[in-house]
Amino acid sequence: MAEKLTSRQKWQLAIRLLLLYSPLLLYVNLPDSVRNPARLLEVSPFIVVFILIALGLYFIWITATDWIQNQLFNWFGDDFLLDFSWLSLVLTMLISLVLAVLYTKVFQLILMALFTLFIHSGFAQVPKPHTLPFTPDVFAYLQRVNNVFNLVIILSAFYLTIISRSYQQLKNVQIRAERSEKEAALSQVEALKHQLSPHFLFNSLSILTSMVHEDADLSEQYIKQLSKVYRYILEQRDQELVPLKTELEFIHSYTFLLQIRFENKFDVVIEITPSQLNQYRIAPLTLQLLVENAVKHNRMSVQEVLRVRIYCQNDVLIIENPWQPRDQTELSTGVGLRNIINRYALLTKRTIWYGKQGESFIVKIPLLS
Asked: Is there a domain that residue 192 lies in?
């Protein structure tokens, strides 16, 4: 959808038209008898009013041109006036011709009204038409010249408006691209911080140290699952998307480590059909961040198990856990969820939803085919 010009942009275009064409119009229309310094000073109030009226009308006509162009864009598409097809050229000429005729009539009416006002008020000795050294043929010629000038002015306004809009759209695209690059870089940094959490590694090694002499088989399983977790982190951290099946296999290993750590207080329930596993893709480590958030912000016990449920509704992955905040809550920076939102903003126009529903905290992640 094409964007409308701002008032500031319209005034800038009006001033450009004024600076470009007003000197030529004055040069063509002022007779030789008025071009000497003394006479120019005498009619200067009239010239100033002429310029101000022209500036105001340019702004109004640029506003009308902007509105007309937006209607054309809505009917024929955003590139209609930029491809210079015969239809666009003919419509541009017809629209400019109509606007030029209207501009000429309005400008003449306003100018004659002020001309009459100046004469009757005695504010300035403006030369009367019959005292000017112009014959009827010369007047007719000047009228035709002014009509041509007005058509050229409106055509210039038409194309300057298109150019200004195109420049603004290009600038917006560049700004969005720069913002996307910045967000991507920040997301990668934040994701890396979470992926290689020193606390998680420290806790895992501490648990392994206390377990290795008590249960050798379980310790071996623990080491295998820990290696799977970090192998996945190293292999997938630079990928934009991974199969949902691959991400859930990683969550299985990650959950195993957390279950050893919290014993019978924590669990993850995955309710995904085989067809859904192979059909959809997801940003890597999305689920790890959400499971980690659930553990971080909720209390758990044998009587009050923290059970994270992962399931699909159509093409949306839902991560749900009971809302049971810790008594001494850890200050939330929101970095984890913000990281996921920023990453998905680069992948799809569909948004992530999260919030409390009843007694549960829910996050809805759009799945990508």
From this structure: no
Q: Domain ends where: 165, 187, 209?
A: 187
176 has pLDDT over 80: no
* Closest-CA residue to 249 (of 191, 296, 192, 310): 310
What Å distances lie between residue 260 and 185, 326, 359, CA to CA? Answer: 34, 20, 26
Q: Are 264 and 298 in contact (CB under 8 A)?
A: no
pLDDT at 131: 46
Distance between terminal CA atoms of the chain?
27
> What's the structural domain count of the chain?
2
Same domain, 86 and 109: yes
The number of beta carbons lying within 10 Å of the beta carbon of residue 256 is 18
pTM, 2 dp:
0.51
* Structure confidence by residue, pLDDT tens digits, 184-234: 656 665 555 555 566 777 778 888 888 888 888 888 888 898 888 888 888
DSSP string covering 343-360: HHHTT-SSPPEEEEETTE
Residue 2 lies in a domain: no
User: Domain containing 322: what range?
Assistant: 198-366
Helix (H) or strand (E) holding 322: strand 316-322
Domain boundary among 187, 219, 238: 187
